[in-house]
Specification:
Length: about 325
């Protein structure tokens, strides 16, 4: 494994309620279960760490009970924090309601993770071989986006930068989003987020426009499609649609995080991009068979899964498209 994953993101405390269906307006539901867990960017960090990558956190944690809870979760996963606790406030939280069809609905309250300044980021040192990751959540916060964008643009040219725009992409000012995409080495997004950036179209066209018009320095883009798998297009014009694995999902919370973390970890240890994407598909498939957002599997579990799983139908179709 080469280098660390330096995660500049937003970790929060998730309050997870399981319900049969969302309540109608003005009505109430009784949850079948409740859990308090570390969430947000923590889920992606766990996926990378469990698949063999050293992970460090350069975002902000709070100075209250939520921050203490998150620090304990980080310690349990062997993830070091690079910045001191915020003296201003506690970490934020997110209410996650998981319905019986395995879908989820969120309500969040930002805290210390929503504020980053140049002074706060001074302890974050990126070494040769490191990978850097951030998400749209941190860029959506008005008191973080400018400092983080400046910091990303100042990264050494040889440092791979991975970006996930996340569902809050519409909350990121377009000039900020454009600057971050221009420095992105690997973009991982879902089909909705891809269309928000590049406009409507089929996945092949979206991937081509993302690379050609928005991510000029990127090595490639990954467009995730849930249970269907993902589409990967590389800077040389080659592309592959990699089918997902059929599993019985019980909780899709954190599936995208598991996919990104496993994908980056696989790339960092030298796996070719299309193979890394299949590995990430397996990680995501395993994660949705477990409860909780930080349900990413270990490398051993993924390898065992792949050794027993039949190749998905049309495991991938490779094409050479116009650059």
């Amino acid at each position: 494994m080469s280098g660390r994953l330096v995660h500049i993101g937003s970790a929060v405390v998730d309050y997870v309620y399981r319900i049969d269906a969302l309540p109608a307006p003005g009505m109430e539901k009784t949850a079948s279960s409740f859990a308090q867990v570390a969430g947000g960017g923590f889920n992606m960090m766990v996926a990378a760490s469990r698949t063999g990558m050293q992970v460090v956190f350069g975002g902000q944690l709070g100075s209250g009970p939520n921050g203490d809870f998150l620090r304990a979760a980080f310690m349990a996963e062997g993830i070091a924090t690079l910045t001191p606790p915020s003296p201003l406030m506690d970490s934020g939280n997110c209410i996650a309601m998981i319905s019986s069809d395995a879908e989820r609905t969120f309500v969040s309250w930002p805290g210390a993770e929503s504020i980053l300044s140049p002074d706060m980021m001074k302890p974050i040192a990126v070494a040769p071989g490191d990978w850097v990751f951030t998400s749209g959540y941190t860029l959506s916060y008005p008191k973080s986006r400018d400092a983080l964008t400046d910091w990303i643009e100042a990264l050494p040219d040889e440092t791979p930068f991975v970006f996930d725009p996340t569902p809050v992409i519409t909350d990121i000012p377009r000039p900020i989003l454009s600057r971050v995409l221009a420095r992105t080495t690997w973009l991982s997004c879902n089909t909705t987020e891809a269309a928000e950036i590049a406009g409507p179209g089929d996945v092949e066209g979206l991937a081509a426009r993302l690379l050609g018009d928005h991510c000029p320095k990127a090595a490639g883009v990954v467009i995730r499609a849930g249970a269907k798998g993902c589409h990967v297009r590389l800077a040389d014009g080659s592309a592959q649609t990699i089918a997902g694995f059929k599993v019985s999902a019980i909780d899709t919370n954190g599936a995208g995080d598991s996919h990104i973390g496993a994908f980056v970890s696989a790339l960092a240890r030298g796996l070719p991009p299309f193979e890394a994407a299949r590995y990430a598909n397996a990680a995501a498939a395993i994660s949705v068979t477990r409860h909780g957002g930080s349900s990413a599997p270990t490398n051993r579990e993924i390898q065992t899964f792949l050794s027993h799983a039949a190749d998905p139908s049309d495991a991938g179709r490779t094409q050479k498209a116009n650059a």
